Amino acid sequence: MITKEDIIRAQKQWSEGIIKMGEISNNRVLLQSFVSEFLDEVYNFQEKVLFKPTKANIEQFRNNKESATSYFIAGDDKKCKEDNGFALSKWSKIIFENSDIIIKENQGLAMGNYTFENNESKIKVEYSFGYIKINESIKITLHHSSIPYQN
Predict the structure, then answer these.
(1) SS3 state of residue 20
(2) Which of 22, 29, 39, 80 has its C-alpha lying 20 to 30 A from 1's C-alpha?
(3) How far from the centroid of its chain's Cα atoms is residue 115's Cα?
(4) Distance CA 8, CA 57 (A)
(5) Rounded CA separation 18/151 (Å)
(6) What CATH code is carried by the domain that includes residue 139?
(7) Is residue 48, in this structure, part of any structural domain at all?
(8) Are the CB atoms for 130 and 141 separated by under 8 Å?
(9) Is 107 part of any domain?
């Protein structure tokens, strides 16, 4: 059974991975290797993931590993032309604030706001994440992020 503590640990792992991408972004070979391993470990791309990233407009949905890689780190081989590499903003702090978490056997849902900070900016983003427990691993099956509605 998945627990709230499992989800909170998975959120911490995700945050640390995004921050590390920015920290190692000057070494493209290391970065690509890290991102590949990160996506395999944290997301359930081995089966199915529903991924709607924050800063995706033209190609809104990134339901495979290649387009998720493109979103996070872009590069010459980016799959989606609009991608600039979200993780390359060198985020130094990512804080999850769960509005609530729902647990159902080996699956969990979390919704709330997360804040991304670096030396130049701080942005608040709304999220919904779905998780599944496979053996002892927690994997993301749903990732939806969006900027709050502006009047």
Answers:
(1) helix
(2) 39
(3) 13
(4) 29
(5) 30
(6) 3.10.450.50
(7) yes
(8) yes
(9) yes
Tokens of 83: 């991608």
Record the tokens describing residue 111, joined without a space. Answer: 């919704």
The number of domains in the chain is 1
**Crossing angle of the two packed helices 4-23 and 65-73, in degrees rounded to 10:** 60
Tens of pLDDT, residue by residue over 67-79, are 999 999 987 666 7
In angstroms, the Cα distances linking 28 to 59, 110, 142, 150 are: 24, 32, 27, 36
33-39: Cβ within 8 A, 24+ apart: 35/69, 35/72, 35/73, 35/87, 36/65, 36/69, 39/65, 39/68, 39/69
Q: Is 140 exposed, middle or buried (0-12, 13-18, 19+ CB in 10 A)?
A: buried
Residue 105 lies in a domain: yes
Let me know if residue 151 belongs to a domain. Answer: no
For residues 144, 17, 139, 82, the Cα torsion angle rounded to the nearest 10 degrees is 40
* pLDDT single digits (tens) 69-122: 999 998 766 677 888 889 999 999 999 999 999 999 999 999 999 999 999 999
Domain containing 25: what range? 4-146
